Amino acid sequence: MIQIRDLKKRFRNNVVLDGIDLDINEGDVVGIIGPSGTGKSTLLRCIDLLEIPDGGSISIDGEKTELSRHSRSQTLSLRRNTGMVFQRFNLFERKTALENVMEGLVTVRKMKKAEARMCAEAELKRVGMLDWSGHYPKHLSGGQQQRVAIARALAMKPKLLLLDEPTSALDPELVGEVLETIKDIASQGFTMMLVSHEMNFVRNVANRVIFLDGGKIVEDGTPREVFDTPKSQRAKDFFAKMHLLRQPEYTI
């Protein structure tokens, strides 16, 4: 069980997160959607302490961390339990795919190299990248780099996997391979929070969808409940606009 309580974040006078309360069960795949600028990515970054919140706490299996005032040891402990996959891949350019996945295992988990190699190879195999383990990032496509980044996060055995727009930096033809990888991971029981503008994908892969607006959760339910029968006017307006954008601009 993961519990987030009263999470707050502002940038100067702009309130980005306004007292977020959220319970996540083991195995949940939580899709986070909403208009741009409503705090979706900030929520993930605050959970992983890449952004320091102004208030709030997170408890993972009973281990509580005050997010606005925490020790270095608490930060390290939290990051051992969470894994972040970024919009950009953030791979080490001078390390092979295998070495990228091994890095955290050796430096953070303090594994011996032989053990770290076995673990890294298993995760690369999970995402379909084992045959590319000896390649450097510059020799990989964007989709392949993102799959290596996912393997790197999974190798740390996180209790919560955070995916922040994992396909936004990819060419359209490469999006599918990454989405399919995430779908496979979700089916294996990993607990995930996924920020994405790929509405159809969120609908199909998540068992729960959260709609953020103005730094608050305004919808929280199953994909069918949120997409088909939203309760808030804001969500209804958002989905109506999304539907209009999908329509052709002209007909012949």
Brief digest:
The chain is an alpha/beta fold and 252 residues long. It has helices spanning 40-47, 72-81, 97-107, 113-126, 142-155, 172-187, 199-205, 223-228, 233-246, and strands at 2-11, 14-24, 29-33, 55-60, 63-66, 82-85, 160-164, 192-195, 208-213, 216-221.
Question: Mind explaining what this structure looks like?
Answer:
It is a single chain. It is globular and about 55 Å long. It has a single domain, classed as P-loop containing nucleotide triphosphate hydrolases (Rossmann fold). The chain is built from nine helices and ten strands. With 252 residues, the protein is an alpha/beta fold. Strands 6-7-8-3-9-10 form a six-stranded mixed beta sheet, sandwiched between helices. A four-stranded antiparallel beta sheet has the order 2-1-4-5, covered by helices on one side.
With strands numbered from the N-terminus, the spatial order across the biggest sheet is 6-7-8-3-9-10
List the secondary-structure elements in sequence, H or E. EEEHEEHEHHHEHEHEEHH
Binned, the helix content reads: 25-40%
Radius of gyration: 19 Å
Question: How much β-strand is present in the residues?
Answer: 15-25%
Assign the CATH architecture.
3-Layer(aba) Sandwich
- Give the class from helix and strand content and strand pairing: alpha/beta
Q: What's the CATH H-level homologous superfamily?
A: P-loop containing nucleotide triphosphate hydrolases
CATH topology category name: Rossmann fold
How does the overall form come out from the CA principal axes? globular
Alpha carbon gap, first and last residue: 54 Å
Total number of strands: 10
The biggest beta sheet reads: 6 strands, mixed
CATH class term:
Alpha Beta
How many H/I helical runs? Answer: 9
User: Which spans of ≥5 residues are poorly predicted at pLDDT below 50?
Assistant: 248-252
Overall pLDDT level: 90
Estimate nothing, just give the exact number of structural domains: 1
